[in-house]
Structure formats: structure tokens, C-alpha cells
């Protein structure tokens, strides 16, 4: 699996940006990852990490001139091997080539909330080639203008304060078009192909299809796109969203089916949580910090909690969600990836395969989950402060008798020397109206207890990836 992101504006390699919070994640790195300041309040310590520029634009600390040499940069360079970086480049012949990006499922939630804003961010940062075209494709009937109008509502200029953002937005929208078609119709994809060719205007064209659709229609869409709308001369690539199947069998079947039409190097599987900067920085926090690495074990950590909470429900996404539920939507992929990154041993090198191998070892050491260690639930309607919040089955896209879980919590155990006996607690839920600890409406927390560096106090280290990303340490107890 690869995480696809674009790095700072000076380096636009990467087939796509991490779309977390609808923007490109910005990274500035230092040679190491020192804790630059501590503010001691009553039982509360804020650790500012001297290496992160947050994606909402807030700079936690100034970047140094040596940013390119930092561990995370190296980590990324390792993850993206030279060969991959080369193949990720959009342009093989800058002036004469073009890239056509088709967002399949353009009428949907992911496309609106993340993909179009991320594409705009790439455009804004100068990371798209000079000639490019973006097509939305879905069954819904829409004109080009209606697509532009829909997309324009979610584009933002908040990446930084540079001028001309509105103008750039207009220019970007002019490059966006729409074609309505069925996902299983070769004929409809052939019509798309015709339109793409008109826009490519004889240039050497590369084509990218982003499958922003429920997984049960991936194969049909890939078959039709590959047979009817592949690039004649350049590359054709497909980005596939999680979940990659419902279980091992369906995942293997999906891979097998995709490979009937695509070679492995044309397929990009994405887990966007791996592109969130704090998830990436977690490895740096641990491996580059003399303070943390020695503490990263059962000896010092009592439990680790990965908490995903959203304070909104499915809101019309039942068509996808109801077939999968919260465990397959969030826990099996996003949270499990973070857990594996958190718990893995130091990889022998920063190559993607070495990191993957360490993550696999963690998964193989995990005790099979027992039913007694899992609870599931589904949100119901309720009224609070005069506001009525609909229940899951009130969503028109959800069957009235659905038992699909929208909340789950599980205790996982890793039976190896480092983590023996430490519970890894995972919780994920939609429409959780109680906000925890911090304000953002969507948030994922990783927190774990480590002993105080100075006294007998123990600390709760909270790594939060929400609308604003922070790393905080809070004193949990003064005296053990
Ligand atoms: N939403 C998010 O934040 C994230 C989503 N994802 C993944 O992205 C993919 C799409 O998610 P999302 O955009 O939320 O899903 P949506 O439910 O919004 O579906 C996307 C589009 O697919 C079409 N569609 C929906 N259901 C069906 C169906 N049963 N049969 C045929 N077409 C259908 C609809 O378009 P039309 O009717 O116009 O054809 C819809 O607009 C999923 O794999 C999901 O796991 C991943 C990360 C984040
Ligand atoms: O993968 C998914 O993620 C989103 C939450 O992503 P975030 O970046 O906004 O935190 C979730 O809403 C969706 O159900 C799921 O498919």
C-alpha cells in the first residue's frame, strides 16, 4: 500500500495529495525532533514539537534551513523509492503532455469534501502540469456548470494567505467538466474517452481515474475505464479507496479482478489517514526522540487508545456505509494502520517494504479478537437543546431495519515482548455528540500513558489529528 501525498510546494512529486482536511498536508522538517518548549500550567504541559507546520497553516515552530535532511523527509524518501518517485511524476514531457483526472463518483461525499479540494490545492501549489483536465463522472445528471457550482462550495483558500486565490479558483473550475454515465457501461466510458480526447487535443496524455465510489462497483468501473478510456500512449492509473473488500476472501477477489485489467503498478491503494501529518510524524516523534523511544514499551505504557469520533452521522451516505459499518469503515483500515505504525519495531531500513514487514509482524502477533472484548452500537435519534438529531435508520439511504454498527469499541492485545499485557483500545463512532477533550468536530486521538520525566507523575500523551493538529502531554496524576 502506498500513501500518496504531495510535499511542500517545492516538491510536487506524488500522484495525489493527502486530502486530510481538504488540503495538502504541509511538512517542514528538522534534523531531529526536539521538544522546543514546555509550558507548565496546573497539571498541564504543552509540548511544542519543533518540526511541524500544521495543515491549517499554523506554524508550531520555525523550520530550519536543513529541512530536507530530516528524518521524516528521509522516511518519506524511503517510502517513495526513487523508481516510484519517478513514475509518480505527472509530466514526462512538460510542454507537450497533459494529464486527465477523472473522479469516478464525483457526486459523492468524498469527492466533494476531499478530492476536489485536494486537486485544487495541488493546482494552487503549482503541482499539476500546465495542461490538465478534470472530469467528474457519476450517474447523477449534472451539467459542467452544476459540477463547478457544487465543487466551488468546498474549495478553500485557507492553505496559506497568498493572493489571487479567488482567481486561481476560477481558473481551476474552468478546467473541471462533468460526464454522466453508468459505472458498468463501456459505452458511457467510451463517450468519456471521446470528451477526454477533445480536451487533450493531441497531446501526449496520461490518465488517472480516482474511484470515489462504493467498493462493490470498483471492478465494473475499472473494467469499463480500462477497456474504453485508457490512455492510448501515456500511463493509465487508478486510485482505489478503502475498504479493499469486506474480508480476506473478497479482498483477494477484488485484487484478482483488478489485475485482469490493470498491472499492479497501475493500482494505487489509498488510506488517507496515513497521509495525515500527525500520523506520519508519529514515527518521527518516536524514532527520532531520545526521550520517547526508550519509553515505548509495556514497561512504561499502561494502555494505548485510538479514538475516532465524529459528531455527524451518515447524512445520505448510507448507500456505502450500511454495507460496511464502522469496523470496516474506520477500524480495520485507518485505526489498524496507525496501531501498526505505533507498535512496530524499528524497521531495518526506511524502504516501504521494510516498514510494511514490521507492520505485518505486529498484526501477526495480535491475539485473535474475542467477542467479549468488543462492543458495538448504533446511534438513535434524540433531542438536545431543542435540536432534533436523527438516528442512523432515519437516514433515507439506510434500510429501516439495519443493524449495521455505527459505533464500536475493542480491546486488542499484541503478544510480543514489547507489548505483552498492554491493552490497545480502539473506539470509533459516528454521530457521537459528546466531544472529548478538545474542540474539533472530527478528531482522532491516540493517547498513552508514560511516566513523568521529572517526578513521579504520569503523563497522558495525546496525539490529536482533528481540524487542528496538536501534540500535547497532560499530567494525569501527580503522584503514582
Ligand atoms: N466520505 C469520506 O470522507 C471518505 C470515503 N472514503 C471511501 O470513498 C468511497 C466513496 O465514499 P463516499 O463518497 O463517501 O460514498 P458515497 O455514498 O457518497 O458514494 C459516492 C457516489 O457513488 C455513487 N453511489 C453510491 N451508492 C451507490 C450504489 N449502491 N451503486 C452505484 N453507485 C453508487 C453515487 O453517485 P451517483 O448516484 O451519482 O452515481 C455517489 O454520489 C468509499 O470507498 C469510501 O470508503 C474514504 C475516505 C473518506
Ligand atoms: O474513510 C473515512 O474517513 C472519513 C473521516 O475522514 P477525516 O479525514 O474527515 O477524518 C469518514 O467520515 C468516512 O466515514 C470514512 O469512510
TrEMBL record:
One term of GO molecular function: NADP binding
Keywords: Carbohydrate metabolism, Glucose metabolism, Membrane, NADP, Oxidoreductase, Transmembrane, Transmembrane helix
Reaction(s) the record says it catalyses: D-glucose 6-phosphate + NADP(+) = 6-phospho-D-glucono-1,5-lactone + NADPH + H(+)
Residues covered by the Glucose-6-phosphate dehydrogenase C-terminal domain: 284-436
One of the protein's GO biological processes: glucose metabolic process
Enzyme class, UniProt record, top EC level: oxidoreductase
UniProt protein name: Glucose-6-phosphate 1-dehydrogenase
Protein species of origin: Solanum tuberosum (Potato)
Gene name of the encoded protein: LOC102597484
Amino acid at each position: 500500500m502506498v500513501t500518496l501525498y504531495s510535499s511542500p510546494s517545492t516538491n510536487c512529486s506524488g500522484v495525489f495529495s493527502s486530502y486530510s482536511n481538504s488540503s495538502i498536508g504541509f511538512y517542514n522538517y528538522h534534523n531531529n525532533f526536539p521538544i522546543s518548549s514546555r509550558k507548565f500550567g496546573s497539571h498541564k504541559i504543552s509540548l511544542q514539537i519543533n518540526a511541524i507546520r500544521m495543515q491549517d497553516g499554523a506554524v508550531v515552530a520555525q523550520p530550519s534551513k536543513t529541512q530536507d535532511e530530516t528524518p521524516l523527509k528521509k522516511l518519506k524518501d524511503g517510502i517513495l523509492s526513487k523508481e516510484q518517485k519517478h513514475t509518480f511524476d505527472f509530466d514526462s514531457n512538460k510542454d507537450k503532455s497533459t494529464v486527465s483526472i477523472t473522479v469516478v463518483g464525483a457526486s459523492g461525499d468524498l469527492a466533494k469534501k476531499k478530492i476536489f479540494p485536494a486537486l485544487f490545492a495541488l493546482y494552487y501549489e503549482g503541482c499539476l502540469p500546465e495542461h490538465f483536465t478534470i472530469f467528474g463522472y457519476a450517474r447523477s445528471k449534472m451539467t459542467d456548470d452544476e459540477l463547478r457550482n457544487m465543487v466551488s462550495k468546498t474549495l478553500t483558500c485557507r492553505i496559506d494567505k497568498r493572493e489571487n486565490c479567488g482567481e486561481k479558483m476560477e481558473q481551476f473550475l474552468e478546467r473541471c467538466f462533468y460526464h454522466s454515465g453508468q459505472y458498468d457501461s463501456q459505452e458511457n466510458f467510451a463517450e468519456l474517452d471521446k470528451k477526454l480526447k477533445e480536451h487533450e487535443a493531441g497531446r501526449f496524455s496520461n490518465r488517472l481515474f480516482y474511484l470515489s465510489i462504493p467498493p462493490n462497483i470498483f471492478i465494473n468501473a475499472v473494467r469499463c475505464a480500462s477497456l474504453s478510456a485508457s490512455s492510448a500512449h501515456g500511463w493509465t492509473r487508478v486510485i482505489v479507496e478503502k475498504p479493499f473488500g469486506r474480508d480476506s476472501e473478497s479482498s483477494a477477489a477484488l485484487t484478482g479482478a483488478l489485475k485482469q485489467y490493470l498491472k499492479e503498478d497501475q493500482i494505487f491503494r489509498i488510506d488517507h489517514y496515513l497521509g495525515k501529518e500527525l500520523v506520519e510524524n508519529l514515527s518521527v516523534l518516536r524514532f527520532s526522540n531520545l526521550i520517547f523511544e526508550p519509553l515505548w514499551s509495556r514497561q512504561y505504557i499502561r494502555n494505548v487508545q485510538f479514538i475516532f469520533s465524529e459528531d455527524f452521522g451518515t447524512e445520505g451516505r448510507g448507500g456505502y456505509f450500511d454495507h460496511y459499518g464502522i469496523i470496516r469503515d474506520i477500524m480495520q483500515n485507518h485505526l489498524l494502520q496507525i496501531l501498526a505504525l505505533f507498535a512496530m519495531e524499528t524497521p531495518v531500513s526506511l524502504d516501504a517494504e521494510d516498514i510494511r514487514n514490521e507492520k505485518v509482524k505486529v498484526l501477526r502477533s495480535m491475539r485473535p479478537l474475542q467477542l467479549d472484548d468488543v462492543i458495538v452500537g448504533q446511534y438513535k435519534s434524540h433531542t438536545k437543546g431543542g435540536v432534533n438529531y436523527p438516528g442512523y435508520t432515519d437516514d433515507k439511504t439506510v434500510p429501516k431495519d439495519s443493524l449495521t454498527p455505527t459505533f464500536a469499541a475493542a480491546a486488542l492485545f499484541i503478544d510480543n515482548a514489547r507489548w505483552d499485557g498492554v491493552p490497545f483500545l480502539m473506539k470509533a463512532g459516528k454521530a457521537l455528540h459528546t466531544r472529548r477533550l478538545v474542540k474539533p468536530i472530527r478528531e482522532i486521538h491516540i493517547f498513552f500513558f508514560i511516566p513523568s520525566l521529572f517526578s513521579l507523575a504520569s503523563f497522558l500523551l495525546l496525539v490529536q489529528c482533528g481540524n487542528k493538529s496538536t501534540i500535547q502531554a497532560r499530567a494525569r496524576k501527580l503522584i503514582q
